[in-house]
Write a structure and sequence with these properties.
The complex is a heterodimer of chains A (340) and B (328).
Chain A lengths: L1 H20 E7 L4 H15 L2 E5 L3 H10 L4 E4 L5 H6 L4 E15 L9 E2 L1 H9 L8 H4 L13 E5 L4 H13 L1 H5 L13 E3 L1 H11 L3 E6 H6 L6 E3 L5 E2 L3 H12 L24 E9 L1 E2 L2 H22 L9 H11 L3 E2 L2
Parallel strand pairs in A: 1-2, 1-3, 5-9, 6-7, 6-8, 12-13
Antiparallel strand pairs in A: 3-11, 4-8, 4-11, 9-10
Helix pairs in contact in A: 2-12, 5-7, 12-13
Chain B lengths: L2 H11 L6 H44 L2 H4 L3 E2 L4 E2 L2 H32 L2 H13 L5 H27 L17 H26 L2 H9 L4 H30 L2 H6 L17 H8 L6 H39 L1
Classes of the chains: A alpha/beta (340), B mainly alpha (328).
């Protein structure tokens, strides 16, 4: 009898400890999932606090946060005003890393990276530029022999933050684009073939001579896809890289007001080295936290990612935040208050 | 839970061979439980239909009939018309059936009538194995093997060499991802369902049927065509319906090869869209209520179309059955 009670007590204790070890749950964006899962694993090892994250997509992350079923959300696109209003309280946006979208193409004759301006890129994806030797492309690629073949556009068919960033850039630089397809995670594409996922688009481009598509930087780098140099706001042609994406955030950070909510787009950012098709991805947390233990865990983790986490971002091809922004964000973490 | 009293009254109505008391409580409970299980399935279908319809109602109400007829699907402007997806679902399934049914019936006729005994089991096993391959594997195979082969040389061959490009059905550029690719993948996927049902049905045709035909002086071919296949046609049609149901609902493999373009084109070389692909592509990142509701409405439309197509096929089976009885 005594033995039984002891066993039961032990079992009970173990159950309790395993329950309390998952301190926070989150859900949302799939794009930063590789770096987030590394962060959460590293953080659990260092602090003993487990964070459970489900990469169900940005839309799902925002929905679950609004319903209060998770402690934090994650999204590749900032919450809209309507979504903020639908949430249970004021939501704070914390940029974590910067994602860049690379333009990839299949032109076997090309040695140097293809050069594209925002206007030409919009023209291609609008179906206004249909041949590779169109004068608008050859004009910005002097000395490059471009074939007289058709351009095949490949785009994402599944809703994705990558499409949001890409269309955000095209909407910013092209009036025709913002009046036409606009910005969103899913679009009504004027031309082209829809493929599922980065791997689908990359596969379509790789297999079809004369194809052009876009994929997130990490995917393009890990699969050594050819990537185009895109003209930025200061007129320079910049290739996508971890450094040029961070430079875009640094350029934009200089223009942020002191009371910014960080729901900002950094496409076409100022700065000579800035890659123009880049965006933050955000963690979403409620400003008011009813559970003070959870609030403390959340604050501790936010501080950790800003200091320790950011250093490992580049190892997985994610661009870290610029140092000046990390400082500003650290003081913002402290404004996260317990109680509603 | 109003089921139990009904059973009791039904029992009371029929003159019992043994008194209720003798049959015992066990039988009554057993019948109740069985009835409950039997009712669970239709109840589940009704519940699913009700929930999807409820969630999709705002979109159906807002766009009305144009939801089924409009070709514009624009999540940014929140205008939703599902016509290309409906068209794509029906056309890709039709291509799949047209390709798979003759092939599957051919395989099963060979297996049941011609194949040496030693080959029957291995070949049947290999055909059945096709059904065990996950659809994402079919999709990957489609992207890396089928699409490149289709783009060059199959599509140019069909279009230019065979001169099919003059018809609207094979016109336009050949990129690979297309309605044709989706139909081909689906054909391979539904082949084992049709083949395995047909094989079992053909094997169940009594020997006497064949022997009678042969005894009347029929050739082997005539015996199969006039005696065996008519005897089995209801079952074979049942297998075809099973395959059709699978083709209408298949999602992943189709999404990976169809090109996901919401546009109605007569050309089989052009990309298209299906309802299941549309939902799979957009559901996870859909955040606005209108968009979610439109996707649910697509789900409801798919549900209704599946039921209508299946009902039509059942009706066909019923007609064939009646025809067989009349002619017999």
């Amino acid at each position: 009898m005594l033995l039984l009670a002891t066993v039961a007590a032990c079992g009970g204790a173990r159950e309790q400890s395993s329950r309390s070890s998952v301190a926070l749950t989150g859900a949302g964006a799939t794009f930063p999932y590789p770096i987030y899962s590394k962060w959460f694993a590293d953080y659990a090892r260092q602090s003993g606090v487990k964070i459970n994250y489900q990469s169900i997509g940005s839309g799902g992350g925002i929905r679950q946060l609004s319903e209060g079923t998770v402690d934090f959300g994650a999204s590749d696109a900032p919450m809209t005003d309507a979504e903020l209003k639908a949430a249970k309280g004021p939501v704070m946006h914390f940029p974590t890393v910067i994602g860049a979208v690379a333009v990839t193409y299949n032109l076997s004759a090309l040695r140097a990276p293809l050069r594209l301006t925002g206007g030409v890129l919009a023209g291609i994806f609008l179906g206004q530029i249909r041949k590779w030797n169109d004068s608008r492309i050859t004009a910005i690629n002097p000395g490059v022999a471009l074939p007289a073949t058709d351009i095949l556009v490949a785009h994402r068919s599944d809703g994705s933050g990558t499409t949001y960033i890409f269309s955000d850039f095209l909407s910013t630089v092209s009036h025709d684009w913002s009046q036409g397809p606009g910005r969103g995670k899913e679009l009504s594409w004027p031309v082209g073939i829809g493929a599922k996922g980065n791997e689908g688009v990359a596969g379509q481009v790789k297999q079809t001579p004369g194809a052009i598509g876009y994929a997130e930087l990490a995917y393009a780098r890990q699969n050594s896809l050819p990537t185009a140099a895109v003209q930025n706001a200061s007129g320079a042609y910049v290739e996508p890289s971890v450094e040029s994406a961070t430079a875009a955030a640094a350029g934009e950070a200089t223009t942020l007001p002191a009371n910014t909510d960080y729901r900002v787009s950094i496409v076409n950012a100022p700065g000579a080295g800035a890659y123009p098709i880049a965006s933050f991805t955000w963690l979403l947390v409620y400003r008011g936290q009813a559970d003070s233990a959870k609030a403390a865990h959340l604050k501790a983790f936010l501080h950790w990612y800003l200091t320790t986490g950011e250093q490992s971002a580049a190892s997985l091809d994610y661009a870290p935040l610029p140092p000046a922004m990390i400082q500003r964000l650290s003081s913002r973490v402290d404004s996260l208050g317990a109680g509603t | 839970m109003a089921i139990a009293p009904q059973i009791v009254t039904a029992d009371a109505g029929t003159p019992p061979l043994v008194s209720i008391h003798d049959r015992g409580l066990g039988d009554v409970v057993y019948r109740g439980v069985i009835l409950f299980f039997a009712l669970c399935v239709p109840l589940l279908v009704v519940l699913v239909a009700w929930e999807i319809a409820r969630a999709g109602w705002p979109a159906l109400h807002r766009f009305g009939f144009s939801f089924l007829t409009s070709s514009e699907w624009n999540p940014v402007k929140q205008i939703f018309g599902a016509a290309p997806a409906i068209y794509g679902t029906l056309v890709s399934s039709a291509i799949a059936l047209a390709l798979a049914a003759p092939l599957a019936i051919g395989v099963s006729v060979w297996l049941s009538e011609f194949s040496p005994r030693s080959l029957r089991q291995p070949v049947a096993f290999l055909v059945d194995l096709l059904a065990a391959i996950p659809s994402v594997v079919y999709g990957l195979w489609g992207i890396f093997v089928l699409l490149p082969v289709l783009r060059d040389p199959v599509m140019p061959f069909l279009r230019d060499r065979l001169g099919l490009g003059h018809t609207a059905f094979f016109a336009g550029p050949a990129y690979g991802p297309s309605m044709l690719a989706a139909g081909l993948i689906l054909a391979i996927m539904i082949l084992p369902y049709i083949a395995s049902v047909s094989r079992e049905v053909l094997l169940a045709v009594p020997r006497s049927q064949r022997e009678a035909a042969l005894a009347l002086g029929a050739t082997r071919w005539e015996a199969i065509w006039h005696a065996v296949l008519p005897h089995a046609r209801t079952g074979i049609l049942g297998g075809v319906i099973l395959g059709l149901g699978r083709a209408l609902g298949e999602t992943m493999a189709v999404t990976m090869v169809i090109g996901n373009r919401p546009e109605i084109s007569a050309s089989l070389l052009a990309p298209g869209y299906t309802m299941a692909s549309l939902i799979a592509n957009e559901f996870s990142e859909a955040s606005s209520d209108a968009h979610l509701s439109a996707l649910m409405a697509v789900g409801f439309t798919l549900f209704v179309i599946t039921i209508v197509v299946n009902a039509a096929a059942r009706w066909l089976v019923w007609r064939v059955e009646r025809g067989a009885r009349v002619s017999a």
